Amino acid sequence: MSTTDDRRPTTRIGYGFDSHEFRAGIPLKIGGVTLEHDQGLGGHSDGDVLLHAITDALLGAIAAPDIGALFPPSDPKWKGADSVIFLREALKRVHEAGYSVGNVDASLILAAPKIGPHSSAIRTRVAELLGITRECVGLKAKTPEGLNLDHAAIAHAVVLLEKRLSSS
Ligand code: MG
After folding, report:
1. CA 49 to ligand 1 centroid distance, Å
2. N or C: which terminal CB in the chain sees fewer CB atoms within 10 Å?
3. What spacing in Å lies between the alpha carbon of 129 and ligand 1's midpoint?
């Protein structure tokens, strides 16, 4: 047993959700990877639904303000922003709170394109952004059967954080 007075939990879990509508004429970015498709995801930033869900999961795990509070869509500064910026800020806050990322698991719900062929590239990129191995990034893709949501992409993500032994 530790004799320090560090009462932070050893692990913390976080959950994030996001959705964006498909729109013609813009690139499709998912998990920091640009995918070949005839539509992209609209939004104030680059619309990367998966990075937004993971960002909110990281922030939620440390009970920090959510992505919308930290990067308000009303602020023109974030127009067209690369969502990697949001993820990096969330990760910085996680580290400052004394935690590192254990693993991430995510589900994408979208009618098209098929994610299977891109799954490895997305997991690799997300792992790289979070500083973990690809084996610690789970990704499932589902079609929105019975939801009448073919015009949108949805992402759910959970993260597990682990307390770092040293302070800072
Ligand atoms: Mg979003």
Report:
1. 5
2. N
3. 18
- Report CA(137)–ligand 1 centroid distance (Å): 20
Task: Note whether residue 4 is domain-resident.
Answer: no
Average pLDDT score over the chain: 94
pLDDT for the residue numbered 167:
52
pTM over 0.85: yes
Residue 3 lies in a domain: no
CATH at residue 54: 3.30.1330.50
Question: Average pLDDT in the 63-91 region?
Answer: 93
Within a domain: residue 2? no
Q: Domain span at residue 126?
A: 11-163
Q: How many domains does the chain have?
A: 1
> Separation of 29 CA from ligand 1 center, angstroms?
12
Contact between 145 and 123 under an 8 Å Cβ cutoff? The reply is no
Q: What is the pLDDT of residue 6?
A: 82
Taking 90 as the threshold, does the pLDDT of residue 74 lie above it? no
Measured in angstroms, how far is the CA atom of residue 101 from the centroid of ligand 1?
21
- Going from the Cα of 42 to the center of ligand 1, the distance in angstroms, rounded, reads 9
